UniProtKB/TrEMBL annotation:
It comes from Prunella fulvescens. The chain crosses the membrane at residues 7-33, 53-73, 94-114, 120-139, 151-177, 197-220. It is a multi-pass membrane protein. It is found in: Endomembrane system. Belongs to the DRAM/TMEM150 family. InterPro entries: CWH43_N (IPR019402), DRAM/TMEM150_Autophagy_Mod (IPR050911). GO terms for biological process: regulation of autophagy. Residues 8-225 form the CWH43-like N-terminal domain. GO terms for cellular component: endomembrane system; lysosome. The lineage of its organism: Eukaryota, Metazoa, Chordata, Craniata, Vertebrata. The gene is Dram1. This is DRAM1 protein. Keywords: Membrane, Transmembrane, Transmembrane helix. Pfam families: Frag1.
Length: 237
């Protein structure tokens, strides 16, 4: 089904479906194994202990790779559109790509260094991933408005900006509440110390994560109009 999509629309579609599956599968395994409570654990909590840690690490690393490819194609698409419209500076487009790739690097760190094994490195990776991700989708929303009405509809731009604002609003309390938690653990139970901070921070984290997924979902229509051609030149001596 993905291969039947026109252009390169299958790339963001695969990213969205794979990332959603990564979150859901690791969550289900962790809950069934009794490693986390079903009520809103951190995303990283669902990928800390085996067997879910292996699934989580593998699938999130693939998600980071797919996100990098999606962002690069998006960069190429804007560059191509910009040749005739000149709606954004090339340096701004490149900066947006670099911010996005930084977020993908953070995802790789989160997937590789488990929460309980190397908590400081894991937390830095999560901060980079979520922080850079929020900045990336915000910049992309602004670029989308600049490309209207030729390359985007205002409806799509409004949707993207709404997702960006919600993600930003959720990102701030996510960091604030997480900073108030005095211990690193995954087996939280209601009523214990810092549980409220953990619960609120986890809700915000899931909100931001699925905000990214819904944002990339809006790329599918744009990517349908774009195809990549690889040309090779053979020089005879």
């Amino acid at each position: 089904m993905l291969c039947c999509m026109p252009g390169v629309a299958f790339v963001p579609a695969l990213l969205v479906s794979w990332s959603s599956a990564a979150f859901i599968i690791s969550y289900v395994i962790a809950v069934l194994a009794g490693h986390v409570e079903p009520l809103v654990p951190y995303i990283s909590d669902t990928g800390t202990k085996p067997p879910e840690s292996g699934v989580f690490g593998f699938m999130i690393n693939i998600s980071a790779l797919l996100a990098s490819i999606t962002m690069y194609i998006r960069y190429l698409l804007i560059e191509k559109q910009n040749e005739s419209s000149h709606f954004v500076r090339s340096s701004c487009n490149m900066f947006t790509l670099c911010v996005g790739l930084m977020g993908c690097t953070g995802m790789g760190i989160v997937a590789t260094f488990q929460e309980l094994a190397v908590p400081s490195v894991h937390d830095i990776g999560a901060l980079v991933a979520f922080g850079s991700g929020v900045v990336y989708i915000t910049l992309q929303s602004m670029i989308s408005y600049k490309s209207c009405p030729r390359w985007n509809t205002y409806f799509v731009c409004h949707i993207r900006m709404a997702i960006s604002v919600i993600s930003l609003i959720a990102f701030i309390p996510m960091i604030v509440f997480a900073s108030k938690i005095s211990m690193t653990k995954i087996d939280w139970t209601p009523g214990e110390k810092d549980y409220t901070y953990h619960f609120m921070s986890a809700i915000c984290e899931w909100t931001v994560a699925f905000g990214f997924i819904f944002f990339f979902l809006t790329f599918i229509r744009d990517f349908q109009r774009f195809s990549l051609r690889i040309s090779t030149e053979i020089h005879e001596e």
